[in-house]
């Protein structure tokens, strides 16, 4: 059955048109100069700041609807925009403009005995479809990252943030037009109908080159199951902090509280705290007390509950749950090997941290765990492209093909080979 949008056109027709226009824009962007792209990003930042009142009005309507639907506090936190968050969005565009242009870089070069000179050169991917849930800031980040890397972006944000995303994309497109680049370099799917997602996953008649999902487990699972084009996998962030027997307690408290409670609704928030049994007597109770003082609910193993009464009993499912809320699961393990084994069994290969003063223990943790990001004596909340100096990110890729970890401009390119000869023919 064909689904229709408000103006009478079918979703199929609307999406096919978006795909064609994105492909045309991608061809222009692939040869756009660095100066032109940076000018567009600067103009986008100006437009975002100039339309802050309109963006806030649109966002207030989205937030009101979300609260009326009974969305969770953590969900609302991801949805809500403030003047400070909008300013951060604009500053993020400027930070991306300040990055080096990844397009045209010579990644490798060599000469063959027959005199051929071969170069591997970075090129745009083409048209990138980004499917994400209700984080309006992703709209600006994704559009800007795609632009800087010479790609056209088709954005399908969460329906709960549709008004906010419409206002943001309008500002981005005005910036593109002022810089003389095609407005269709950034397009937003204008309907909440899920049929649009299916059409994107099918490739929009061959016009989508890559799909990037950014959201919860059900969204990513659908994308991985249904996509007919390559996907940058972004699984949920079941992130762990392991506090070793050789950890400084004051440092551990600071890191654990920040990793869990700085912002509970981001994918880099810690969801499980593992403590070495060897230091349970000295470290466990203070760590739990520090979390509870910030309003965090503790779900713990029976062993932990026996040592620190008052914790909620953890179910088997809790060890593999991304709460995105002020909840953490706490357990004891036998040293770094126990931590590694637990993370291998329950983690999502996103981000893990170890707190220890023992360099050998830290090295083993970071060498043996197969997650995209590993930290030693630092909070998991640093799992962020901006914190890595990438300006921003589309998300944290947990797969192993092409991109892994923060996906910034350098990850949004492919390559081609340029071969220069002097008349050689193959014998």
Protein described:
With 427 residues, this protein is α/β, with parallel strands linked by helices. It has helices at 11-29, 34-50, 52-68, 73-79, 83-97, 136-148, 162-178, 195-201, 217-226, 249-261, 280-293, 302-307, 335-346, 359-368; strands spanning 106-111, 117-124, 127-132, 152-156, 186-188, 210-214, 239-243, 270-276, 297-300, 312-313, 327-333, 351-355, 373-376, 396-397, 405-406, 413-420. Helix 1 packs across helix 8. The longest helix has 19 residues, at 11-29. The radius of gyration is 23 Å and the shape is globular. The model has no long low-confidence stretch (mean pLDDT 93).
SSE arrangement:
Layout: H1 11-29, H2 34-50, H3 52-68, H4 73-79, H5 83-97, E1 106-111, E2 117-124, E3 127-132, H6 136-148, E4 152-156, H7 162-178, E5 186-188, H8 195-201, E6 210-214, H9 217-226, E7 239-243, H10 249-261, E8 270-276, H11 280-293, E9 297-300, H12 302-307, E10 312-313, E11 327-333, H13 335-346, E12 351-355, H14 359-368, E13 373-376, E14 396-397, E15 405-406, E16 413-420
Parallel strand pairs: 3-4, 3-6, 4-5, 7-8, 7-12, 8-11, 9-10, 9-11, 12-13
Antiparallel strand pairs: 1-2, 2-16, 14-15
Helix pairs in contact: 1-8, 2-5, 2-7, 3-7, 5-6, 6-7, 10-11, 13-14
